[in-house]
Design goal:
Layout lengths: L2 H12 L7 H12 L3 E5 L6 H12 L3 E5 L6 H5 E6 L4 E6 L6 E5 L6 H4 L3 H6 L1 E4 L2 E4 L5 E6 L12 H4 L2 E6 L5 H11 L14 H12 L5 H17 L10 E3 L3 H17 L7 H12 L4 E2 L1 H5 L4 H11 L11
Parallel strand pairs: 1-8, 1-9, 2-5, 5-8
Antiparallel strand pairs: 3-4, 6-7, 10-11
Helix pairs in contact: 2-11, 9-11, 10-11, 11-12, 12-14
């Protein structure tokens, strides 16, 4: 199966429930192929939850949702040990994290102790309950939604956790025509979308083998490193210039650009990764992996502004060397 066919059948099914958000849907499919987690940020009411739930249904995998709230406990996420009076033994009770696709809804509404319950699962694909390690199902993804940090009652995610997300995607308001179409299609109280599974976890695992066959030339790998290391250079103190970054991107960013570039290339039917594909995913990969200084925030400079500056100043490779 080629990438466009697999992508289109999932897009068509998701489109029964979600209108618009084409770029976001494509990035989510790239994340599935690259075995990465996704963080969606946007104002309430933009169908972030519906989008992830629709993706889980269309993909045909086990789906679980956790609504993050201030009173949530880590055991509500991963599970706990339950005492049995009959035999006097403790047995593990598995939490909702034991699923293929976990929706962490409004993840920044819960404090750090609950957010940290996902750290081991997101990196090692396993959780520890009562001193025993339990592997998670394969494939396993965390797709989280969060409200903008400026909203009241939010707890910013720590850097160690945001770095584990392959993408941070920004969800914006629909266009005039898209919102009009929503009212026309879903204006009836009794009219609700019904989605079917058009793929499977097993099929996704097979498709990843094809993604691994996409070529990345040493020239493009060098370009990826140049982009990531440029963010670290901006975080170094320099005499006579304002420092806008407190820290640059980690090596996870290099791996994320490499993997996401291959997945996007396969999805579009390309045999090799071009610098243009890396540029397309650069903002989504880097925006949550760099830290702004107080000076940058005072001047209303965003992480996207910094990433754009890095893209403009880094030399772009060209020529036949991209295919070799």
């Amino acid at each position: 199966m080629n990438g466009s066919h697999w992508s289109q059948k999932l897009r068509n099914e998701i489109g029964k429930a979600v209108i618009g958000q084409e770029a976001v849907v494509e990035r989510m499919l790239v994340a599935l192929l690259a075995n990465g987690h996704v963080l969606l940020e946007g104002m309430p009411g933009l169908a972030k939850t519906l989008l992830i739930k629709s993706l889980g249904t269309a993909l045909g995998v086990q789906f679980e949702r956790i609504q993050f709230t201030p009173d949530l406990l880590p055991s509500d996420v991963v599970g706990t040990m339950v005492f049995s009076p009959k035999d006097g033994m403790f047995t593990p009770h598995r939490g909702p994290i034991f699923a293929n696709l976990l929706l962490a809804d409004e993840i920044n509404r819960a404090p750090a102790k609950v957010q940290s319950a996902l750290l081991e699962a997101m990196q090692e694909r396993q959780v520890t309950i009562g001193g025993t390690t339990h592997p998670l199902p394969t494939p396993f993804f965390v797709m989280a939604t969060q409200n903008p940090v400026e909203q009241e009652g939010t707890y910013p995610l720590p850097e160690a956790q945001t770095d584990r997300f392959l993408f941070k995607l920004l969800v914006d308001y629909p266009t005039h025509d898209e919102e009009l179409q929503m009212m026309s299609r879903w204006g009836q109280v009794t009219s609700q979308p019904v989605l079917q599974a058009v793929s499977s976890g097993a099929e996704l695992l097979e498709l990843r083998k094809a993604v691994d066959g996409v070529h990345v030339s040493p020239v493009v790998e060098g370009y990826i490193l140049a982009l990531v290391r440029a963010t670290r250079d901006l975080a170094k103190p320099a005499k006579g210039s304002t420092r806008y970054l407190s820290f640059g991107a980690s090596p996870r960013a290099s791996l994320a650009l490499h993997q996401a570039g291959k997945a996007l290339a396969w999805l579009r039917g390309e045999e090799f990764v071009s610098p243009q594909l890396i540029q397309e995913v650069a903002h989504d990969v880097l925006r949550h992996r760099i830290g702004l200084t107080y000076e940058a925030e005072a001047e209303n400079i965003s992480t996207d502004d910094i990433v754009q500056q890095v893209l403009e100043k880094t030399t772009v490779p060209s020529g036949e060397t991209l295919k070799n």
